[in-house]
Amino acid sequence: MLTYHHKIRDKSRADSYDIITSMKYRPYIPNLLSLFRLCTAILIGGLIFIPAPIWTVQALVILGIVSDKLDGSLARLWKVESDLGKRLESVIDPTFGFLSGIYIFLYTDIPSWLFWLAILLTSIGVGGRIFIKLYTGKFFYEKSQITRIGVGLTFTILIIYLFAVPYRDWILWPFAIWTTFGVINYCRMMILFTLKHRRPNDSVS
Q1: DSSP letter, residue 33
Q2: Would 71 disulfide with which of 30, 57, 82, 115, CB 3.0-4.6 Å?
């Protein structure tokens, strides 16, 4: 039989679980996870200039990747997707990838050509979204399965170079080819979005 103290402790745990899963708090949890990822990105950026054991960056990158997988998944599961969440993700994700990429470029043996290719492709995506916002007045959030696989491959590259996984060079060319293909497809999506949402005064009379 449970003692009084056991019952109180179990009730406290249940209350904590109810608070986390309550509909009242659900809309905030994905965005808090995105902001948490921003914090990990800022810390990684600081560790570019401040010497620290590599395990600290390894831990931060893993936490950032986990938060990236959770925020969108929870938002879709709980049906609490919002424009704010999409805007946060569109800014925080490139920031996290950029700062993590700089650290890996400086402190691991990743080839420099891959780093600069990633910078170029990321710049195309970010620049395209900025152009769409200026031209149409709308934010571009769309993602395809090709884009999601590309993000997964990017995270894989971060992990295998941070942890110096053997034979890591084998994934470089498949990653480069798929990512380039993904950015071409992303550009196609941005063009279609721009044509669909362009302002009336930009249309041909």
Answers
A1: H
A2: 30
**Average pLDDT value for residue range 180-198:** 93
d(CA 183, CA 177) in angstroms, rounded, equals 10
Paired tokens of 19:
């608070």
Report the distance separating Cα 62 and Cα 68, nearest Å. 10
Q: Token digits for 98?
A: 């950029």
> Among 120, 83, 82, which Cα is nearest to 101's?
120
* Burial per residue of 30-50, b for 16 or more beta-carbon CB atoms within 10 angstroms, e otherwise: bbebbebbbebbebbbebeee
The domains located in the chain, with CATH, are 26-202 (1.20.120.1760)
Give dist(CA 78, CA 181) in Å, integer.
32
pLDDT: is 142 or 157 the higher one?
157
User: Which residue has tokens 């993602």?
Assistant: 143
> Tokens at residue 68, please?
């990236």
pTM: 0.82
Coil/strand/helix, residue 197: helix
The residue whose two tokens read 């992990």 is 159
Q: How confident is the model at residue 19 (pLDDT cuts 50, 70, 90)?
A: low
Helices (H), 137-199: 145-162, 172-197
CB count within 10 Å of CB 162 equals: 22
pLDDT digits (tens, 9 = 90+) for 130-150: 999 999 988 888 888 998 898
Q: What is the DSSP letter of 170?
A: G
- Alpha helix stretches (DSSP H) within the chain: 4-21, 28-49, 54-77, 83-107, 112-136, 145-162, 172-197
